[in-house]
Fold:
Amino acid sequence: MSCSHLSTAWSSSALASSASTTRRRSPPRSGLLVRCSLRELRTRIDSVRNTQKITEAMKLVAAAKVRRAQEAVVSSRPFSEALVEVLYNMNQEIQTEDIDLPLTRTRPVKKVALVVLTGERGLCGSFNNNVLKKAETRIDELKQLGLQYTVVSVGKKGNAYFQRRPYIPLERDLEVSSVPTVKDSQAICDLVYSLFVSEEVDKVELLYSKFVSLVRSDPIIQTLLPMSPKGEICDVNGVCVDATEDELFRLTTKEGKLTVEREKVKIETQPFSPVVQFEQDPVQILDALLPLYLNSQILRALQESLASELAARMSAMSSATDNAIELRKNLSIAYNRQRQAKITGEILEIVAGADALAG
Amino acid sequence: MKLNLYVLTPKRIIWDCEVKEIILSTNSGQIGVLPNHAPINTAVDMGPLRIRLLNDQWLTAVLWSGFARIVNNEIIILGNDAELGSDIDPEEAQQALEIAEANLSKAEGTKELVEAKLALRRARIRVEAVNWIPPSN
Structure:
């Protein structure tokens, strides 16, 4: 008699437990209140963990690439330095002569070409959006000034953006390799050169992200053409920076944290140089020299843009990783709370059954 | 006497060593540079750069237009790109030459023709750089 009652009680408890396990509830409706089955919670936690691993890996890859981008800038410095020095000396030697060069010819501006550098991929915060917003702002300014304009887009994100906006005249859309090469900058250089020399446009401006620090990069606009014979770098407001000052960003570890130091290096120009013969006409020599300078400016912009993109991606993936960690913690708490509640319920049922049996 | 030779491109330093003599293609023809050469500025044309080392060995590099400055036994060559002959793969260069020749025969229109001729010239220079036999002395 006693044995028979016990068997009945266990069977009843098992049925109740099974019903509880398979019951489905509605998805969560408020912030931290999570209502779903334990299995779903478990799946969600695993999914978040996988995402965290991916974002963390992307963050580390971006950090490595920033360092490599820095090396690219450093390795191109000897060329820039030598070019500036040669350009400086050339101008000293031919100062008295009246030189007319196609790239330095200043005309009344009626049409402007805007070269916009964007990234090839996303997942880098607002990097691409910032550049495109700046481009839109500049386009509005040109409209207000009553100037015509055309856009040369470089990078997949910019290409996609401008192709969806037929009202913006797009001269060309170019794609570059994931690491800037001389071939890429040469393609852009050839395009703007032919636009300017054929007088299709009267001014060429370059819009790109200037790498300021790991957490900040500013879209800036720099006038490419017409260029100053002395090789000065001018922004759109006519403020010129002496080309002998070369800014260099360096990724360092200060007190265990990644920081960026940006130092100005004054390129020394020799005070006295001997009288130099010209194998060809000075105009012809400068014709050969200025395109080199234009190309190196564009390459530098491409490198800075890439460094900015990678730094932005590093920040974005770092934030995503932190969010994933926090979310996983919250989900784990909810999971454990539910699991504890379930166990408590089962224990209560067992105790109640035992009491009923004893009574 | 020696010459300090620097060949610089935006990507990297191609050459940075002392040499005995160089032969350079300029816009107005090839020039040879020996120690105590007169100071000179010149535009560099597309073509080979012959380098005579201190041990009298000859090397060939390929330049794709640029600028050269020779002052005080120091030669600075700036170009958008340059290649050492030892870095060029002979078979690849030969194939590129054949492809360029085929493209030239198929080119239509002025623009394509100009581009095809330029590519052919470039490929030919690279092949010559690989196959060049230095003078024996």
Q: What stands out?
A: The longest strand of chain B covers residues 58-71. Chain B has two helices and eight strands.
